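It would be a great kindness if you could assist me with a short task in structural biology. The matter concerns a single protein, recorded as an amino acid sequence and a row of backbone structure tokens. Could you please explain, in whatever detail you think fit, how the structure tokens follow from the sequence? Thank you for your consideration; the sequence and its tokens are set out here:
___
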Amino acid sequence: MPLLIDIADAVAAELNAAELSLDFTAEVNLKPEFELKDLKTFKVTVVPKSLKISGATRLESAKEVRIDIGVQKKTADPEQLAALLQLVEEIAGIFDRKRLTGYQKAVCVGIENEPVYDPEHLRQFRQFTSVVTLKFRVT
């Protein structure tokens, strides 16, 4: 399997093994496009984002992999939005400076969640959409 998919699979497995405030099954998806009707129950989608290879030494390369975790649900209910924001924070906390259990060569060296949700999706579609980007260094 390609490195990006191996790491995405390990991220999904880590999410599915975690005990978080809301129950879900994270899935790796290489083409994450959903209809609004598909988002009545919320989705957690893991998507490979990028691979960057640079010279670490004269003989070795450094690999950086970025993985997106999308959290989506059709809702505008303030209580549900707060619960989804809490879940997004919990998801980020799982990976903070940790090695992936299913891919020990990858350590999370950065996490981004900006903006915390997409205000356009909320206003236009009444859909909560948040993306957490994980940056892994691979040895």
